[in-house]
């Protein structure tokens, strides 16, 4: 017995388990971030997401899919019940290229749908674009921009409001797996820049400038996304490329969260930013008033910039329901042909001059939850 007690005791199962856990924790701490966290990283110019991130500005097409285009052969619905039916246009759309003339009665009806949801944003300055080493070259240099007070629609224009003013439904012209069935509360999408511009003028408003859009999207933030520097909260604030989208696009790089919508969602479905604005990120891209130039930031004025004098594409902002982590950053910018219709969904919201001395009002900054 004495000889036996002198032998070293074998490690107990508990001791072995504790040492194993400690070793694994040390390895995890010293090792590079695992692949599961890759969706939180903003990649540099020479890296690519498999998603809607890198466009060819002003030419009427984007690099949307893993192979550089929207490839419907990769759309393989895991749940067939979620697959949208291809809408059938009820009539041929005649694009409107002029400023629409509608009666005072009709304008009042449209304004009833939209005017009550405009927020006053007070004058202010912010850092526009991305710092060195972040984002694309078109987002640099980061520079200070100061804006006068203005008003902005709280949400994008809905299909209901668009049809009330125009009597047409461009979204019915979309064909293919990325086309969302119509719904009155969905944003008006598949619209050209010219149609969006005409609508805003018809209801006594205008499209926001690119600078106004980023100012409003940031809502006082200086982070990569309006809610912070990771996508942890992304699906609470925006309809983006997420686990719901993976039900259709299985090879897409997505955020590790579920926003509840595979394609386009109703406007106002997600939490507002700190100034009370909704859907400034994701769901549908949004037209701005500016022409697009990848070098504009090099010569942009500080006060109330309005973009280049001319160009081949109009600037669009905000990303969409298929937007990769790159494309939904606050500073991400791209362009698209003003007469083009994009199946990845381009919508818009309207802006106007302040009707009275601007106060933050319902857009008062609040703590994000």
Q: Overview of this structure, please?
A:
- The structure is a single chain.
- The strands form 3 sheets. A 4-stranded mixed β-sheet has the order 7-6-5-8. Strands 1-4-9 form a 3-stranded antiparallel β-sheet, with no helix packed on it.
- Helix 3 runs antiparallel to helix 4.
- It has a single domain (49-369), classed as paralog of FGE (formylglycine-generating enzyme), CATH 3.90.1580.10.
- Helices cover 18% and strands 10% of the residues.
- Residues 1-11, 24-101 and 357-369 have low confidence and may be disordered.
- The chain has 7 helices and 9 strands.
- The termini are far apart.
- With 369 residues, the chain is an alpha+beta fold.
- It is globular and about 40 Å long.
- The relative contact order is 0.20.
- The protein has helices at residues 2-6, 13-30, 104-114, 159-166, 193-202, 210-218, 234-237; strands at 118-121, 124-128, 143-147, 150-153, 285-291, 314-317, 334-336, 346-347, 351-352.
